[in-house]
Amino acid sequence: MRASLLQVAVNKDETVGSRRSRVAGMVRDQAGADLVVLPELWTTGAFAYEDFADEAEPLRGPTHDAMAAAARDAGVWLHAGSVPERDPDGTLYNTSLVFSPSGELAAVYRKIHRFGFDKGEAVLMGAGDTLVTVRLPGTVLGVATCYDLRFPELFRGLVDAGAETLVIPAGWPERRRSHWTLLAQARAVENQAFVLACGTAGTHAGVPQAGHSIVVDPWGEVLAEAGPDEQVLTVDFDPTTVAGTRDRFPALKDRVLGLDRPTTGT
Questions:
Q1: 171: closest CA among 114, 236, 235?
Q2: CATH assignment of 2-254, given 3.40.50.2300, 3.40.50.300, 3.60.110.10, 3.40.50.970?
Q3: What is the separation of C-alpha 211 from the centre of its chain, rounded to a whole number of angstroms?
Q4: Which long-range contacts (CB under 8 A, 24 or more apart) does 238-242 make?
Q5: Is CB count within 10 Å lower at the N or C end of the chain?
Q6: Given a cut of 90, is residue 18 above it in pLDDT?
């Protein structure tokens, strides 16, 4: 399987409409790939909180339409990163869209873990409540977004749902880049799955982005890693090796679930 991670630069000197058109062209340039992945909130920037409400779209809004057409023209599966979505009742979500090679909307994931603690995304956006997997020819994708990477139980749930390849678009800050690499490798090792983690380049609302999109195999080996700037990171990997890895080193079978909470001694 050939995957292309588009590490898009998000900067304030480019309008959302211009960037949407430019990124659609980048997707079309990946004809021949099997899967193309975009970053989190690449239309606005993950830290451009003040723009979320103004730039929020309905689920089948302009980014949906542009990415559906680009996926169809390129003939690729497209994880179109995420966009600020406004649902019919007015709630905002950080929403990922996955398209088939025919341009059909194959899956929708609303980010479960919102970043910001008591500000930013955590208070401006609603939380999703559904794990999402997508069956492709040859593998099952498990879908997560950025801050989700810090919550291993989410990925266990995806593995239990059949995921073999974990796809994580992000707008990860440069100041915590070491966590990005470490956690991507940890999620690969503990779940014995491929990890495709696609970040942004540039600066969002004054926050320099880490870049360094990364592809990790089920043993935690880095197959490919981008630099800090806008880049297309393309890698060939064999998703059928997941089953073999889990069979040869069957750690997932030794999980112990449903443990009682610890008690306090007297």
A1: 114
A2: 3.60.110.10
A3: 13
A4: 238/1, 239/1, 239/138, 239/139, 239/164, 239/165, 239/194, 240/138, 241/217, 242/139, 242/164, 242/165, 242/192, 242/193, 242/194, 242/218
A5: C
A6: yes
CB 145 within 8 A of CB 125: no
Rounded distance, CA 35 to CA 1, Å?
8
Give, in order, the Cα–Cα distances in Å from 147 to each of 115, 150, 154, 226, 239: 6, 6, 11, 20, 25
**Does residue 198 carry a catalytic annotation?**
no
Q: Which residue has the tokens 């340039």?
A: 29
Inform me whether the pLDDT recorded for 266 exceeds 60. Answer: no
- Answer yes or no: are the C-beta atoms of 200 and 46 closer than 8 Å: yes
Strand order across the 2-7 sheet = 105-110, 92-99, 77-86, 35-37, 2-7, 231-236
Question: Is position 40 annotated as part of the catalytic site?
Answer: yes
Closest to 43 (Cα-Cα) out of 70, 30, 24? 24
Instruction: Tell me which of 111, 121, 164, 198 is the catalytic residue.
Output: 111
- 228-240 pLDDT per residue, tens: 999 999 999 999 9
Q: Give me the residue spans of the domains in the chain.
A: 2-254
Annotation marks residue 174 as catalytic: no
Instruction: Give the DSSP H or E segment for 155.
Output: helix 152-160
What secondary structure letter does DSSP report for 151? -
